[in-house]
Request: fold
Amino acid sequence: MTKDIIYAAAFAVAGLSLAACEKKEHMEESKAFMLSDTMMSRITLDTVRTEAVRNELTLVGKVVPDENQVIKIYPLVGGNVEEVDVELGDNVRKGQKLAVIRSGEVADFERQMIQAQSDLLVAQKNLSSTEDLFESKLVPERDVISARQMVDKAQAELNRVKEIFSIYGLGKSTNYTVKSPINGFIIDKNVNRGMQLRSDNSESLFTVGQIADVWVMANVNESDIPRIKLGMAAAVRTISFSDEVFKGKVDKIYNVLDPDTKAMKIRIQLQNVGFKLKPEMHATVSLNFEEGSEMQAIPSQAIIFDRSKNWVMVYHSRSKIETRPVDVYRSLANRTYIKSGLEPGETVISKNQLLVYDALND
Reply:
């Protein structure tokens, strides 16, 4: 009898110990899957939404100045370049001196101005004398008419020379000053101090461009041409500012193909805030367009690829987080479209979800 009581007691103690272990293990397991306040502050929750399926076309291009705001400056006279006051990339104002050319042509224009003024003065005095003689009946009227014609001719010559001075921006000096016609940046420079220029020089000295607005010229492959539409939203990224996205729109489609590359060019116009975009920068252009269907969409960063499958962490509560496989239709830079595996309104973890995934599945 005593032996039976001892066995019974032993079994009871063992049962209590086993129950206590199971309870402890269950508590530890529950505690392991409970997100702490710190972890909750580190994750981001997003709601599954039904959205129109969008596709993305990635193009390669480069930044160029707005051609409508670019002016090439050519030398209007030949001569020796005595001063060059700006360098490539300098910001200049309208009317600012860029260079000074000492020119024999300018000296000749100055001589023409003096000669024209002198000829006009002589013609006017001759007309006055002839009119006096005509009033005294000493000369015929035709002499007065002839004198007036000489005044008109001298005045026309003086006006011509003055117009040349105005066009060339000449003063009383024999030097020709090259000035900027607009506010902008020096984006090309082909002159140095000491250069000798011919009057028939066909190369521009400077190119001044306003880059407050710039263009991005991108190449479209022949197979992608049907997808391009005017007004498409464009996201432009550059190597220099890899974390920044510049927003613009397709404002021109060049409906011709390059015979060598078989690519068509499109133009995206951008506001260049802070002049960050420089001419000739390489750019990557992303164009988004709708396909006409709808699917469930979540942030692309919510997807976890593991064991040859795509997974998401579906959040129900701090202690109930589900690892669920999903069938991905398409992933873009920011959004991923899901064919199956998620329902509208469900919540997924889209930041630091890999930490939760590892904790639940290791």
